[in-house]
Design goal:
Blueprint lengths: L2 E5 L4 H12 L3 E6 L18 E5 L12 E4 L6 H6 L1 H22 L2 E7 L26 H21 L3 E6 L2 E2 L10 H11 L3 E4 L5 E3 L1 E2 H12 L9 E3 L4 E3 H12 L5 E4 L14 H7 L7 H16 L1
The structure holds nicotinamide-adenine-dinucleotide and uridine-5'-diphosphate.
Length: about 300
């Protein structure tokens, strides 16, 4: 069995990934400074004999024996990263360098959790991996978008320079249990508002689209990519191609919660992508992966998670 490092392992995606890797009998080292994640996400893993938590900032050099590295450390919520742009950019770039240096020393395989935000506000729709994106380099989202783009650059330069075994996955909006209730992402916000009987906050006219993928599907693709042949480096899109407007999402959440909440419209925000939908032909072909959880089913599971934590 392998020794696997998950940076950002106490976050939403990272905690599900740690669970999956432990379930397969691996030893898992979770490196996190709880910047946007929380110990409660992994509290059920702390007594596991093959689980180790290291509370550390990924921007500081780190060394351990390891076979594989999943680099997830970075806030993913627009609210949090826009409040902390410098920390976000440094985490993305310095964190990538530190994890790549560790991979080089250990001859470990390394996977980068990249993002659909590398496409910015896309002029090509849906987005294939070959699209180079439309990112505003000086806007309020740039700390995240350009940080993640820079991290991709570093991954490919380390691969070309040191023949490192790299995997770059461009993750589209993922949701599910253990989303941070306070980080302002649309799925958690709208569910919590619906359950509390508060008005659902729709930014802009709500006609902007996203394509929401359930966490189990995303984590499954992450695992498949890490375990794919070394020749498959990516970048590879992972997401659910089923596209919906924010208004559609709000109305589905109202139906599923049975809430009588109304909608309230907030001003549109700068550089908010208007449309986003992944082309996942590469993931289907190369990883034999296809998302299997419908938005309705995934939302039901997410709603029951938030019902429990709001009790
Ligand atoms: P999250 O905020 O829940 O998790 C990120 C984790 O990284 C947190 O536990 C946080 O404490 C940790 N972290 C942040 N800065 C750190 C630092 N300097 N040192 C150590 N740990 C640090 O977010 P998430 O949704 O689980 O996203 C995980 C990864 O996947 C991120 O890299 C994100 O960019 C990427 N991603 C997520 C989505 C999504 O929809 N959830 C989409 C695209 C990409
Ligand atoms: N959004 C919204 N209401 C909210 C939070 C977000 O309408 O309470 C919108 C946001 O402006 C964006 C979309 O929902 O257009 C997705 O936002 P999120 O922060 O979840 O993720 P993003 O895809 O922007 O990273």
């Amino acid at each position: 069995m392998k020794k696997i490092l998950v940076s950002g392992g106490a976050g939403f995606l990272g905690s599900h990934l740690c669970e999956k890797l432990l379930g397969e009998g691996n030893t898992v080292i979770c490196l996190d400074n709880f910047f946007s994640g929380h110990e409660r996400n992994i509290s059920h893993l702390l007594d596991h004999p093959q689980f180790e938590l290291i509370i550390q900032d990924v921007t500081l050099p780190f060394s351990c024996e390891v076979d594989e590295i999943y680099n997830l450390a970075c806030p993913a919520s627009p609210l949090i990263y826009q409040q902390h742009p410098l920390e976000t950019f440094k985490t993305s770039i310095l964190g990538a360098i530190n994890m790549l240096d560790l991979a080089k020393t250990q001859q470990a395989k390394i996977l980068q959790a990249s993002t659909s935000e590398v496409y910015g506000d896309p002029e090509v729709h849906p987005q294939p991996e070959t699209y180079h994106g439309n990112v505003n380099p000086i806007g309020p989202r740039a700390c995240y978008d350009e940080g993640k783009r820079g991290a991709e650059t570093l991954f490919f330069d380390y691969q070309r320079t040191y023949q490192l075994r790299i995997k770059v996955m461009r993750i589209f909006n993922t949701y599910g249990p253990r989303m941070n209730a306070n980080d302002g992402r649309v799925v958690s916000n709208l569910i919590i508002q619906a359950l509390k009987g508060q008005a659902l906050t729709v930014v802009g006219d709500g006609k902007q689209t996203r394509s929401f993928c359930f966490v189990d599907d995303t984590v499954d693709a992450m695992w498949r990519l890490m375990n794919s042949p070394d020749t498959l480096t990516g970048p590879i899109n992972v997401g659910n191609p089923s596209e919906c407007t924010i208004l559609d999402l709000a109305s589905l959440i109202l139906d599923l919660t049975g809430s009588k909440s109304t909608l309230t419209f907030l001003p549109a925000t700068a550089d908010d992508p208007l449309r986003r939908q992944p082309l996942v032909d590469m993931a289907k072909k190369e990883l034999s992966w296809t998302p299997s959880v419908s938005l309705e089913e995934g939302l039901k599971q997410t709603i029951s998670y938030f019902e429990k934590i709001l009790r």
